[in-house]
Amino acid sequence: MNATTHSLVQKLWNYCNVLRDDGMSYGDYVEQLTYLLFLKMADERSQPPYNQPSIVTAEYAWPRY
After folding, report:
1. If you average pLDDT over residues 12-22, what whole number do you get?
2. What is the pTM of this model?
């Protein structure tokens, strides 16, 4: 695992720990983090070099958050 991947995995686990400590169950925080990753990936695919139209409406787009 390279350093960038390791860093991303560590950040996700840190977010999981914060959500778990706030009383969320495993299923709940996996759902929330999956949704955030989906929004981020949709945003990245709309940027160069992909330049694909986003499937997420502007109201829920990643840059809004």
Report:
1. 85
2. 0.68
